[in-house]
């Protein structure tokens, strides 16, 4: 196990491969050419690095027509990459908390397939405060009242539990240093917000913008003032 850990850590520690994994946190699948542009390397070099990541099962590839698309092999790889960002030393200068002084990527962004940043953490705080979810020993669980709340909110908890992935988990936010919500429940929450136009993706960025409708609904359901 120790040898395998060292091998994986060394693999991720390469600057180009680390940059590839960081870009895949966008949640989309990328071609080798797109990744080469994103990490500023050659087509030959990107092919070598992608091959090593494929061999380690950190990414997967899917062929569609003439193109091959690369993405994380599973959700847990994405969560592990995001969690590594928390190893970056916290700035000594206090971060200003007003929303207009937050960079968009820190204020509201996607963390692979769920909501993160200041708004993502605020959403988790609201669900905990309302006792829709409860935290025990570092684990998130949905309360009996929460099951009813999610049903009325339009999220099928039984369907979320059937998915072959983590159901609900706290995910340490690298910019806020506190937990937001990951797992199938987190993904369903973000999907609802996108589908109902509460938030909109920003092209070529993990940051998302909150719409006027989103401001009203976040206040209504989660008591979040944007």
Automatic annotation (TrEMBL):
Listed Pfam families: HTH_20
SUPFAM superfamilies registered for this protein in UniProt: Winged helix' DNA-binding domain
Domain HTH arsR-type: 1-92
UniProt protein name: DNA-binding transcriptional regulator, ArsR family
GO molecular function (one): lead ion binding
InterPro entries for this protein: ArsR-like_HTH, HTH_ArsR_DNA-bd_dom, HTH_Metal-responsive_Reg, WH-like_DNA-bd_sf, WH_DNA-bd_sf
Source organism (scientific name): Flavobacterium saccharophilum
The keyword DNA-binding is assigned to this record: yes
Keywords: DNA-binding
Residue intervals passing through the bilayer: none
GO annotation terms (biological process): response to cadmium ion; response to lead ion
């Amino acid at each position: 196990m120790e040898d395998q850990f060292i091998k994986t850590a060394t693999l991720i520690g390469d600057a180009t491969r680390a940059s590839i994994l960081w870009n895949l946190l966008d949640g989309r699948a990328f071609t080798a050419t797109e990744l080469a542009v994103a990490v500023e390397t050659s087509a030959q070099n990107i092919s070598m690095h992608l091959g090593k990541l494929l061999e380690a099962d950190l990414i997967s590839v899917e062929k569609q027509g003439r193109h091959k698309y690369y993405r994380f092999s599973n959700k847990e790889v994405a969560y592990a990459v995001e969690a590594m960002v928390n190893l970056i030393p916290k700035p000594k200068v206090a971060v200003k908390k007003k929303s207009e002084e937050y960079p968009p990527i820190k204020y509201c962004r996607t963390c692979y397939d769920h909501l993160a940043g200041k708004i993502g953490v605020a959403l988790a705080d609201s669900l905990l405060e309302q006792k829709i979810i409860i935290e025990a020993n570092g684990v998130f669980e949905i309360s009996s009242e929460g099951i009813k709340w999610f049903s009325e909110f339009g999220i099928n908890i039984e369907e979320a539990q059937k998915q072959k992935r983590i159901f609900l988990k706290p995910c340490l936010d690298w910019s806020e240093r506190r937990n937001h919500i990951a797992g199938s429940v987190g993904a369903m929450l973000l999907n609802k917000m996108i589908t109902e136009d509460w938030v909109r993706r920003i092209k070529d960025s993990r940051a998302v913008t909150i719409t006027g409708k989103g401001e009203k609904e976040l206040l209504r359901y989660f008591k979040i003032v944007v």
